[in-house]
From TrEMBL:
Gene3D superfamilies: 1.20.1280.290. Keywords: Membrane, Transmembrane, Transmembrane helix. The keyword Cell membrane does not apply. This is MtN3 and saliva related transmembrane protein. The keyword Endoplasmic reticulum does not apply.
Length: 92
C-alpha cells in the first residue's frame, strides 16, 4: 500500500527536477556572447542568492531534495548571471 509519507519524497524529487531543469533553456540562450541584454542583472542576483539560501536551508534540515534541487538551480542561475556580467563588461 502506498502511503502519503512514502510518496512525498518522490513528489519533491519530481518538483525539484522540473524546476531545476527549467533553467537549462535560459543557460543555452545566454551562453553566446551578447545574448543577455534583455535579462535583468538585479533579478539574476536575487534569484541566485535566494537559491543559495534554499541550499543552506536544505542542508540545515538535512533534506536532500531541497538541497539537490536548489543546488542545480543555483548552479544554472549562476551560469546565466556570469554570462550577464561577461556581456556587461564586453559592452563597456
Amino acid at each position: 500500500m502506498v502511503t502519503l509519507e512514502g510518496i512525498l519524497p518522490w513528489i519533491g524529487s519530481l518538483a525539484a527536477l522540473m524546476t531545476s531543469l527549467s533553467y537549462v533553456p535560459q543557460v543555452r540562450k545566454a551562453l553566446p556572447r551578447g545574448s543577455t541584454e534583455d535579462l535583468s542583472l538585479k533579478t539574476l542576483i536575487i534569484l541566485t542568492a535566494g537559491l543559495g539560501t534554499w541550499i543552506v536551508y536544505g542542508a540545515l534540515k538535512e533534506d536532500w531534495v531541497i538541497l539537490a534541487g536548489n543546488g542545480v538551480g543555483a548552479a544554472l542561475s549562476a551560469i546565466v548571471l556570469g554570462c550577464k556580467v561577461r556581456d556587461m563588461r564586453s559592452t563597456t
